[in-house]
Amino acid sequence: MDVGGAGAPLVAVVGVVGTLLSALLTQRAAERSRRHEQERAERARARERQAAQRLACYVALNTAARQYLAALTDQLHALRGTEDSRAVRQRLTEARDVHRDVYAEAQMRLPDPVLALAGEVTHALGALYGRLRRLDDGVPRPGDSPDTAQAEIDALWERLRELRRGMRADLGASEAARPDPLAPGPPGSRSDPGANGASPGR
Q: Rounded to two decimals, what is the model's pTM?
């Protein structure tokens, strides 16, 4: 029997099978690589969506808080007779409602450190709102006065800056060593003219 002749077909079969298995393994490896790449791309897109949603939430919260504080400042000016009280009350109600809604959404999105800062600001805004409403209604409590309200307004602008720094840090934005373009003016100045259509002052 010609062993060499009989073994030749077997060698050929083994070679063909090996070639097919190699192609199959290569195809499976390529499919795994494509699948992993797709999963990485999906995770990256999900992170981008989350970052965009958080940025939008931060922008809305920062804007709503500034406008609420500006409306509170207008209310103080109205108490002093320098503003139309009816229009000011309407703006204050609207600003308060917007801030309430934005903050409610932020509670679901913000990380704990930033949420703690936002909660402090929101509580202080609410306390100032209550003080000004009592003064406006003519039923002040001990310690309620326009001067006290002005001091709280000045302190709240600093708290808003702290909140903004916390949000920027969470977003990975660097703090440049330059004056804050949103820094407040002298105590007693209009707090945020931008809320009424003028250029922002804070």
A: 0.70
